[in-house]
Design brief:
Layout (H helix, E strand, L loop, with lengths): L7 E6 L4 E14 L2 E6 L5 E14 L4 E14 L2 E5 L5
Parallel strand pairs: 1-6
Antiparallel strand pairs: 1-2, 2-3, 2-4, 4-5, 5-6
Family: Belongs to the ATPase epsilon chain family.
Function: Produces ATP from ADP in the presence of a proton gradient across the membrane.
Protein name: ATP synthase epsilon chain
Length: 88
């Protein structure tokens, strides 16, 4: 599918593997002070994450959700990286 003009790249990485790498329209993640959402063009960000649910809105308009065991989230340019110990 063609890249959406609303999409940006997200990598989800655990110590064992690259769990996800692809284009998404948004991500909602569990920050230490509550949920936050990131869209394309977000200001640079580095945030600590607590255990909880992550929701992806994929560029093909589908959604995906999964649990993480805390970690860190970084946004720079139109790329985001979520580092976590475990994803289920």
């Amino acid at each position: 599918m063609a890249s959406s003009d609303k999409a940006f790249t997200l990598d989800i990485v655990t110590p064992q593997k690259l769990f996800f790498s692809g284009e998404i329209n948004s991500v909602i993640a569990p920050g230490l002070n509550g949920l936050f959402q990131v869209l394309k063009g977000h200001a640079p960000l580095l945030a600590a994450l607590k255990s909880g649910k992550v929701r992806l809105s994929l560029s093909d308009r589908s959604e995906d959700t999964f649990q993480i065991a805390g970690g860190f989230f970084e946004v720079s340019g139109n790329k985001a990286i979520l580092l976590t110990e475990e994803v289920s």
